[in-house]
Amino acid sequence: MNIAIYGKTFEPEHLAYFKLLTGKLEEFGCKLKVWKPFFEFISQNQALTNSMQLFSSHEEIAEGTDFLFSVGGDGTLLGSIALVRDSGIPISGINLGRMGFLSSIPRTEIIAAINDIIEKRYRIEKRSLIALQSPSDLFGDMNYALNELSINKKDSSSMIVVRVSVNGNYLHSYWADGLIIATPTGSTAYSLSCNGPIITPDSSSFVITPIAPHNLTIRPIVIPDSSVISLRIEGRSRQALVCLDSRSAYIDTETELVVSKAGFGINLVQRQGDNFFSTIRTKLNWGLDIRN
Fold it and tell me: SS3 sequence, the chain?
């Protein structure tokens, strides 16, 4: 089995979990490829075996890789999407961060999770992506996101106005600090913190959520993910901040943004017994009630 491993820097006390992961995978005869910057960080603090290969781009793992392990938190898993792209490589996230909503494997269950994968006791969960169609040069070929696209005012100045149309039909002009267009996966992230609804991952939808709207009657709205959404930013500031997950860029106001569903999805590995409803109960304390 060919395994790619991706990660970023983390606290020194977490190095033991990386050693545990790679040691167990090598025990099963897996061939390991490690993200080069991550390998260099680890090797500064821990001796590594010479059997590990390195990779520096998505082309180097696009063919012949059976799984990618993301080692870190949810932000690390979001970063791994730039390497997996449209290859279909299943992603399994090991949580060394805090919540670990997407990185669902606790650090204490690394061995059990590897055993489950080797013994094929898992399922693949397809997650949709949102894509920025225009302007096409804003994020280049990384113009998609698993969680959300968000528009934010550039600084602490006055609010912005985001004029939104769906499939050519005018929806609303949002007077707010910004606007979020989230996938079902992203509905439990930034959108949720702005009072957006929770949407199950298999829902074919987007949610449009305003950030601190200056209007008491405005609420988030759920639309089909087959929709094409057009956005135009107005306001006193000359620029606004556009984010695709953890990547960001400034755009001039009056620039039109066009977003839609990406033409491919991401495969997340889910162990048997794990499901979306148990995750929101345990991670978000959803529905917490002493009567239950």
Answer: CEEEEEECCCCHHHHHHHHHHHHHHHHCCCEEEEEHHHHHHHHCCCCCCCCCEEECCHHHCCCCCCEEEEEECHHHHHHHHHHHHHHCCCEEEEECCCCCCCCCEEHHHHHHHHHHHHCCCEEEEEECCEEEEECCCCCCCCCEECCEEEEEECCCCCCEEEEEEECCEEEEEEEECEEEEECCHHHHCHHHHCCCCCCCCCCCEEEEEEECCCCCCCCCEEEECCCCEEEEEECCCCEEEEEECCEEEEEECCCEEEEEECCCCEEEEEECCCCHHHHHHHHHCCCCCCCC
CATH 3.40.50.10330 applies to domain 2-128+265-284: yes
CATH fold of 130-261, please?
Tumour Suppressor Smad4 (2.60.200)
Our answer to whether residue 74 is catalytic in this structure is yes
Q: What is the pTM of this model?
A: 0.91
Confidence of residue 50 (pLDDT cuts 50, 70, 90): low
The pLDDT of residue 238: 84
Catalytic residue from among 74, 177, 225, 245: 74
